[in-house]
Amino acid sequence: MTSPVTREVPVTVRVFAQRFSSTPRGARLARRLAVLQLDRWGVPYDSETSETAALLVAELAANAVTHGRVPGRDCELTLSYTPGLLLRVDVSDTRGERRPAAVAQGPFDEGGRGLLLVEALASRWAVLDRVPVGKTVRAELDLSPGPARTRPGGS
Q1: 3-state secondary structure at position 39
Q2: Which helix (H) or strand (E) holds 101?
Q3: pLDDT tens, position by position, 76-92
Q4: DSSP 104-133
Q5: What number is the average pLDDT over the span 23-30?
Q6: Taken in order 126, 58, 35, 20, is the CA torsion positive or negative?
Q7: How far apart are CA 140 and CA 122, in angstroms?
Q8: What is the pLDDT of residue 151?
Q9: Which strands make up the sheet holding 75-82, listed edge to edge?
Q10: Least trusted range by pLDDT, from 32-36, 57-61, 63-67, 150-154
Q11: Is the alpha carbon torsion for 134, 25, 88, 14 positive or negative?
Q12: Does 149 have pLDDT greater than 50?
C-alpha cells in the first residue's frame, strides 16, 4: 500500500542582519534599517506590522546601547520574516551579565518602561545567551491568528 502524496506549501524565510555602533545614533539606524528592509520585503511603511516592528527595534536597540554597551563593541540587529506567519526581531549585545527584565516602575521613575512596551506589543519575547559572548533579546510577532501569547522569557 502506498501513502497518498501530500503537497506542502514552500515557506520562504527572509533574513536581514546588520551590526551597528553601540550609540544612540546606531540605535536610530537599526530602527530605520528595519523598516526599510520590511518595506523591501513587501511590508509597507505605514502598516501595523511595520510600525510595531519599528517600536520593538527602537526599544531593544536603545536598551542594547544603553545597558549592554561595551566600548569598542558593536550591537547587532537580525530580522527573520516568514510572510504571513512570523516576524522575529533579535537585538544582540556583548554584555551577557546584564539581563533585562520587564518590571513595573513607579509613577515618578524616569525610565524602565521599554520592556513593558515590548511585552505589550510582541507575541513573545525572551533573553537568550549569545555565543561566544553576550546576549540576544528576541521579540516575535505572530502575523497570523494563532495560540495565545506566552509569558515573557518564554520562547
Answers
A1: helix
A2: none
A3: 999 999 999 999 999 99
A4: PPPTT-SS--HHHHHHHH-SEEEEEE-SSS
A5: 94
A6: negative
A7: 6
A8: 42
A9: 14-20, 75-82, 86-93, 135-142, 124-129
A10: 150-154
A11: negative
A12: no
